[in-house]
Prior knowledge:
The protein is an alpha/beta fold and 840 residues long. It contains 20 helices and 29 strands. The strands form seven sheets. Strands 7-10-11-12-13-14-15-16 form an eight-stranded parallel β-barrel. Strand 10 (221-223), helix 6 and strand 11 form a beta-alpha-beta unit. It is globular, with a radius of gyration of 28 Å. Residues 1-19 have low confidence and may be disordered. The structure holds 4-O-methyl-beta-D-glucopyranuronic acid. The site of 4-O-methyl-beta-D-glucopyranuronic acid has 11 residues, from loops.
Amino acid sequence: MPRLRALLGVGVLSGAVYACPLAAESTHDAWLRYAPIERTAREKYASFPAAVVVLGDSPTLGTAQRELIRGARGMLEKTLRAKKELPREKAIVLGTIVSIQALVPGFSARSSLGEEGFWLTTENLRGFQCLIVTATTDRGVLYGVFALLSKIAQIADLSDLNEVQQPYAPLRWVDQWDNLDGGIERGYGGRSIFFEDGKVLTDLTPVREYARLLASIGINGCAINNVNADPRLLEEDFLPQLARVADAFREWGIRIAVSIDLSSPKVIGRLDTFDPLDPRLTQWWRKKVDSIYRRIPDFGGFVVKADSEGRPGPSTYGRTPADAANVIARALKPHGGVVFYRAFVYDHHLNWQDPKSDRARAAYDIFHPLDGKFDDNVIIQIKHGPIDFQVREPVSPLFGGLQHTNVAMELQITQEYTGQQRHLCSLPSMWREVLDFNFQLDRDGASVKDIVSGKTFHRPMGGFVGVANVGMDESWLGHPLAMANLYGFGRLAWNPDLSPRAIADEWTRLTFGNDPAVVSTLSEMQVDSWTVYESYTGPLGLQTLTDILGSHYGPGVESSERNGWGQWHHADHDGVGMDRTVATGTGYVGQYPPPIAKLYESLQCTPDELLLFFHHAPYTHVLKSGTTVIQHIYDSHYEGAERAADNVHHWKLLRGRIDEQRYSDILARLQYQAGHAIVWRDAVCNWFFRASGIPDAHHRVGNYPDRLEAEAMQLQGYSIVNVVPWENASGGKAIECVQPRRCTASFRFARNAGWYDIDVVYFDQNNGVSSFQVFVGDQVVDEWMANDTLPATKIGGDSSTRRRIRGLALRPGDDIRIAGIPDREEHAPLDYVEIHAPLE
Ligand code: GCW
């Protein structure tokens, strides 16, 4: 992959727009691109040592030394001298406290560094002022090196460096949901970097590069395969392949783990049972685990998804998750391995007609009674909310319900329900709210961050797990800005007190440089983007309102209703929301400690943003904000779509300050998002308008004066189709060209002469590449191919896409014609055009 890093031009800090175009940059190195810092700032590092000494010869220390040399070469354009012993000049010294003490007997850290903390300091060593990166362990030294490089990239002053950092929690892992065939469940960044065709890939370079990124943000474990696990991974002949992956991670201080299928002893082990209490199971797992550790001595352990979404589990034998977890934990224990047992256990065949049934209750109902029954190398891995990574959920009550059990919080970096990396939705803002949530237990420090890090209940283990799902895509997650979520996850797992703004700022500086205009614009866009996404999808705790039976991407307001999956919002003619109160609802509220239960039990006290998660409220209910529920639904969707459009505008102001390649790539994505936000807005607003019968006080919903429906145009060859669900196309209808060659839709322009933009809304499926041409009279004013790879094989909310044709001089009577040429299953489908005064 090309690594074009050189920044040309001047004026990084002056705020001036660059005189010369900036060279294209690869997105592959993400926040570790080590671009040269600008010349004037380099003065700051004029006295930077010329040598880097590493005290010890472990692979991790070697990695740390090489990384420092790489970073300094990139950012300062200086090649440091690699040394094994202290030279007779000032140097950067990398080594554990013990190894430095061997050189300088009096040397000692001012505060405890723990196992993974580090200390950056300057000290006089044998007469020379040295910059010291030290820690208790080699891994700590590596983390210290990354911190030092990050400071240089952000042009920090190093002269009086004296800084100790320690991670907040011991377990900071990422999970990958990769399948052995190379696909990734809920992955939006290409094929697997681990597997293809049932095997581990031969070239593991991307794995090493990934490990480097992870180490730089303090991640210390990675589960490499889908939690919907393939038992083949545990076959004896697969283990050497796993060992190769472990080797690739090891030099970066990261342990690997695998997700397992609990029926493995039966499926691949030739036992006739997988009952966890059968003694043969104990033996089977012990043998299997011993065999893994013979090949991978630092193996991390297992992740378990069981009795959930069709996965086998202990319930088959009437056993509990504790029975299942402990048998495996005992096999891992002698080797130092752990079991992450997921609390994502629920029945997806719930009775939607039973007002008491509630998926949100499941995790607490199942795991709370087992508190204290899990071995101490078992960690219950709990999704942050009680449902499933929706755009907003309350914090899972289970965090307060397991006081004698290790817990970890599972967060989703891959944007399954939050725009699938096609929408900018920066999640640290959401995560920070979750981490700060306080359970108000009868003791100090019962915030979620303290509970999951083991502090509150004095647990030996705990931490953070992020479902990352990076792939082979050049930018890893499929959208360069989405990498801020991976970065933000690592930074919060290390220090949950960092503000989303500080994280966004850091990430932007590392990824795009220190130009203040870029930093402030992009940081602000990121910090706001979660609530922007929420407001044009599912506000008021409605959950995302996406198509939960299909792609989880576009709008699908009713897809969650009348089925067993339990993501109901129960919207009817009079109101909307799930009654989860103890008094009249499912009783879920009662799973929280009393002060919190009291808050959520009351319709008046529940915060607006979660209202409909807890209550079924009439559309006319007046919110704390003073508007009614229905009007809020309308307003929020309109405001959200406008804010998504504003991002395009803000981004355009950065032209010339960012290399053209990344600039235009991101611009195109933001433009797409602005168009798709309108699809969301219209679908949700129209659906609720029809359900409630209450019009929008501002007359926007159902009223589009600039819009001309395709079905109302003069059609040649095109035929009109009804779209299902109706709200996902304007007017519920679209047109498609089922003829083999070419169809046209035309109309006469009937407004005043002037400059206009035309938005053409069409459907871009992934099972064909139609092409479109737009004519004004005989002149072709635009043409394009519908060649995106959206998660859609049909006309609807997933495929609906906007093309904006800018700056057309239109005259009354102009004949405007759209020609569509179909391809395979995609029949050049069109929804509508909108003609308006030039916007951005
Ligand atoms: O969010 C849901 C996803 C499933 C996933 C499951 C889980 C891996 O839609 O694809 O399965 O959660 O977390 O186990």
